[in-house]
Specification:
With 167 residues, the chain is α+β, with helices and mostly antiparallel strands. The protein has one domain: Heat Shock Protein 90 (2-Layer Sandwich). It has helices at residues 2-13, 22-40, 65-75, 107-114, 124-137, and strands at 19-21, 44-50, 58-60, 81-90, 93-100, 142-148, 152-160. A five-stranded mixed sheet has the order 2-4-5-7-6, with helices on one face. A two-stranded antiparallel sheet has the order 1-3. A hairpin with a 2-residue loop joins strand 4 and strand 5 (93-100). Helix 1 packs antiparallel against helix 2 (22-40) and helix 2 (22-40) runs parallel beside helix 3. The longest helix has 19 residues, at 22-40.
């Protein structure tokens, strides 16, 4: 756990860089998941469905971990939680999904999270990631959330497929 924690913080800092390889973002998310797995044990299952081709592209840092953290903090229902991390290259985009089988949330709550006025007291991490993506890549990219009470939540993060070092 100490090694995972050290790795998590080292990757979070990334020598002050904003843009990092997707593979580094995935390593950071895996380190965070490993820390949580130590805490929750068998109550949590984690599945990865990552297209290896996305590793050669770049992303802004810390776009996955806040949503994984939200799943651990808000989604757990009963004794277990399953989280699935998906990463795909589709046309000229990289699409990440963080899928959980937790308690879910109503559409009104999702609307409030993205509303800059109503969401003042909630959803900081979500709005932060969404805003950073849009500021860096444009309004065609960002975060969407689909959820239903009792069936879980799917967060989708869309960024452009840009190879490392190219703008």
């Amino acid at each position: 756990m100490v090694l995972d924690l050290a790795k998590f913080y080292r990757l979070s800092l990334n020598e002050g860089r904003t843009l990092i390889p997707v593979r580094s973002e995935l390593e950071q998310a895996e380190a965070y998941m490993s820390i949580q797995k130590t805490k929750f044990g068998d109550a949590v299952t984690i599945d990865y469905d990552i297209d290896p081709a996305i590793g050669k592209y770049e992303t802004i840092k810390l776009i996955l971990q806040p949503f994984i953290e939200n799943a651990f903090e808000h989604a757990r229902m009963g004794d277990s939680l399953n989280i699935r991390i998906v990463g795909r290259l589709e046309e000229e985009q990289i699409i990440f999904k963080i899928i959980d089988n937790g308690v879910g949330m109503p559409a009104e709550r999702i609307r409030q999270i993205f509303d800059p006025i109503e969401g003042l007291n909630t959803g900081f991490g979500i709005r932060n990631v969404h805003s950073r993506i849009q500021l860096h890549f444009g309004s065609d990219y960002g975060v969407t959330i689909g959820s239903g009470r009792g069936i879980g939540t799917t967060v989708q993060i869309v960024i452009p497929a840009r190879k490392i070092g190219k703008t």
